[in-house]
Fold each of these.
Amino acid sequence: MASTATRWNLVISTDTDVNLRQFLASRGGGRKGDLSKFVQEAVDARIFQLRVAGIKAANAGIPADELQTAVDEAVRAVRAERRKKRQQLVRKA
């Protein structure tokens, strides 16, 4: 979890509460912070899923080979930039 936190007040069904707490307990959970950690991970995963779905929808009409070329070019550019920064750091040391 991040070093700073925000408190949420959530309303969920009793069934969901019981199921989640039983699940956490069955995995050795139940310690302070386990529920918050689970919710944080679930929210992060859902946001990631929604972003991926949005990207896929936005690129649905683009041929796969064009997408792969764009990805390959972006990866090459990022790697080149990282190499450049590493070399600069080595020169300074």
Amino acid sequence: MIAYVLESTFILGLFYSLFFLLKNENSFRFNRFFILGSLISAIILPFISLPFPGAGAVSPATVMLEELVITAEAPLKAEGTRWPYYWLALYGVITLIMGSHLLVQLFHLRRLKKRNKYEQKTHYALVALKGTQTHFSFFNTIFINIAAVDDDQDLQRIVRHEEVHVRQKHSADVLMLELVKVFCWFNPFVWLFKPLMMYNHEFLADQRVVLQGEDKATYLDQIVKQSLTNYNVAIVNNFNYSFTKKRVIMMTKQKSKWLSMVKIATILPLAAGIAFLFSCTENNLETQTDKSVEAQHLSETQEETVVVATKTKEDNAETQKEVFMVVEDMPEFEGGEPGDFRYFIAKNLAYPQKAREESIEGKVFIQFVVGADGIVKNAEVVRSAHPLLDAEAIRVVNLSPAWTPGKQKGKNVDVQFTFPINFKLQ
């Protein structure tokens, strides 16, 4: 989960940075699809793992479980290893609140249409609003505050503007972004993309209305007159989205197709490179297995090199048995998640007394195999901290009860893990 959050945020942050090359250009259609593509990429790229071109043989590999910290004063303080569950609960609560808020807004719009008179046109329904609400559209419905319209010509200009939103289905973009916010509320760049999207929708509508023959000066005057009102529903396209000054600037800006093409030609390979880079990583184990297991690279010069792979061979004198790194159904500890295994270790491991007296601390990496029968075996130290700490770590790992074995193509198989245990005196 943490790996996904970090990677998704970083990807969207990179795309957000790239967008600033385009934000002042008139390439509104391209901008629209760049924004949508950025959101979609941030969601799906962390789930994709492709081999690097030419990557044939790989180093010996293992699945890296999340580090466990053991302190001398209170070993069971490592009960904090259950923190993923608390974060998951917090995520669920906030997601539920966000989702409920979105549903309330949708319900409010539906009720608003029902409570006001509306006229069905060929491509949209025209709803006459009451009160001080401004004009806006949502999918195939245009809401107009008749009292705020000076004459029929003003009304026609407003309707033409909102009709562009309807025909180009801008509400689908906004609804998609709102859904992304519900499930990816932790990503700050999702929130930052919202005004960029709304800006661009207004630019597209303004551009289209002027191309249809509307007098630019009269239309600009209309925008300014409507700038004092706003409608506080986050998922609608307003006639004015509080961007009056920016809209006026963009409408009067001299177009430079050459400059826009150069920027687009620069951004496209950069965006493709970002997508390729993040899909061709070999440390996406958590998202591939949907278990609470994290994969990470550990590079060493004279020690063991630990990287993520699909499988390796375990050589011994009598036979050669296949040991997998990633399988279709990963092994599960008796509690249901690898996190419970960490809790088991924390509860049973004791900081060696002699190590305390001699102020010895360090991180031990234990490698072990969950066999096809679910039994933990072949526990060994692959990175040592101190013999006293190594021995205690091996002792406790060997105490592990049976796991639910991993499966590949319906068959129980051996799966290898590496588990870092960090002994800290304070």
